[in-house]
Amino acid sequence: MRKLGSHVVFRFFLSLGVSVLGGLLFTVIHTPIPWLLGPMVFMLLGSQVAKWPLMWPASIRDYGILIVGYSIGLTLTKEALHGILLQLPMMLLMTLLLIGLCVITAYIASKITDFDFPSLLVGSIPGGLSQMVSLAEEMKSINLTLVTFLQVTRLIMIVFCVPFLLFSPWFEGTAGGSLDHPFIDVATWGTLFPEILLYAPLCVAGAWVARKLRFPTAFMLGPMIVMCVVQLSTTMHTPSLPTSLLNVSQLMIGSHVGLMLKPEQLQRKTQTVTLAVMSSVLLIVGALGLSYLLMNVFSLSAATSLLSMAPGGMDQMSIMAHEVNADLSVVSGYQLFRILFIFFIVSSVLKMILVHMLKEKKADPSLQ
Fold first, then answer.
1. Range list of H helices, the chain
2. Contacts of 25 (CB under 8 A, 6+ apart)
3. How many domains would you assign to the chain?
4. Residues 43/259, Cβ–Cβ less than 8 Å
5. Domain holding 359: CATH number?
6. Which of 57, 166, 192, 310 might form a disulfide with 196, Cβ 3.0–4.6 angstroms?
7. Is 259 helix (H, G, I), strand (E, B) or coil?
8. Is 231 part of any domain?
9. Is 351 or 286 the better-scoring residue by pLDDT?
10. What integer pLDDT is reported at residue 21 of this predicted model?
11. Domain of 96?
């Protein structure tokens, strides 16, 4: 038993060292979002290329997301919430257009590959990795490995590509952003106290309540709601988090994302990898088009518009919004609306459609 425990501890500290090394290197070479991309890339290379026994507990990722949720909650002021309410019709339209693009992509892919349409559809919908994988697990006919790989590939490509798009010359909205954030800023930690001693337990409690209620992205949504309520109902000071703590949260999230891709589980590797990359590129291009429309309708910055529409994880998009000084409340509003819409409406509709398709397939042998 002691040997097993020591082995797990060794694997964790090896993984931590790899993640920190990745963050430091990406900081030195001035890449965008270094403490998210560095650990992600190094963990991916360490596990898939070097074949090291890396591991990263999901609970660490969850508390990294909780830190981001606290930061988003600080942006949800009365003015921000009013602005979000005014944009609800556009949020619905943009979400429907993005889902429509996913349906078309899955349908075309099903015609030119050997994969079935239901599996491709569930793998394409950007409704949160855990939610889509859970839906795939409930449906016996769905190819769970394919769904997981498509979802993870999309997430990794978006997390990696979007920062470079944001810091490119085409996006003027990042002008206020900086690549040179210090990792250690001890002086700013003092501004957290004593209020953080109250807010930290409240945010943890909010996350666990949201999880018990089966909310999507519970460790983000719980703290968001807690801090939003605190700001709207009290006059208490709500301190912003130090950059170094946000860097730590990026490392906690990026390390987990880097270990999610497992190509060795695929049966038709070349075809699946090509499909995953091409569909992800198409989604990114579609998000760029929708962000251009959003930018012109509401006079938002290019960065805010792209991060609002990018079909990635809400936590990663929010981290990027903070880095480039985009409107975090708008970005989180659009991302949250899409997650909730897909979780509560699209998932149910999708499940009914897939059950109907499965019954038709069983009734008509020519469809099998």
1. 2-28, 34-48, 58-75, 78-86, 88-112, 117-124, 129-138, 144-166, 186-189, 196-212, 218-233, 243-258, 269-298, 302-309, 314-323, 328-341, 347-363
2. 38, 42
3. 1
4. yes
5. 1.20.1530
6. 192
7. coil
8. yes
9. 286
10. 96
11. 58-367
Question: 9 to each of 5, 13, 19, how far by Cα in Å?
Answer: 6, 6, 15
Write out the two tokens for 83: 């602005």
Q: Which residue shows structure tokens 């709500």?
A: 238
Round to whole Å and give the CA distance between 263 and 27: 28
- The C-alpha torsion from 124 through 125 and 129 to 134, rounded to 10°, is -100
- What distance in Å separates the CA atoms of residue 103 and residue 91, rounded to the nearest whole number? 18
Residue 179: band (very low, low, confident or very high) from pLDDT cuts 50, 70, 90: very low
Mean pLDDT: which of 58-62, 129-133, 146-150, 181-185 is highest?
Answer: 58-62
Asked, for residue 51, whether it belongs to a domain, the answer is no
Reported as a pLDDT band with limits 50, 70 and 90, residue 257 is confident
Distance CA 142, CA 124 (A): 13
pLDDT at 321 over 80: yes
Instruction: Please check whether residue 20 lies inside any domain of the structure.
Output: no
| Torsion from C-alpha of 291, 292, 297, 301, nearest 10 degrees | 80
pTM of the model: 0.80
Q: How far apart are the first and last CA of the chain?
A: 49
**Is residue 28 situated within a structural domain?**
no
- The predicted model gives 295-316 an average pLDDT of 86
Burial of 117 (0-12, 13-18, 19+ CB in 10 A): middle
**Residue 111 in contact with residue 120, Cβ under 8 Å?**
no
Tokens of 26: 């990406």
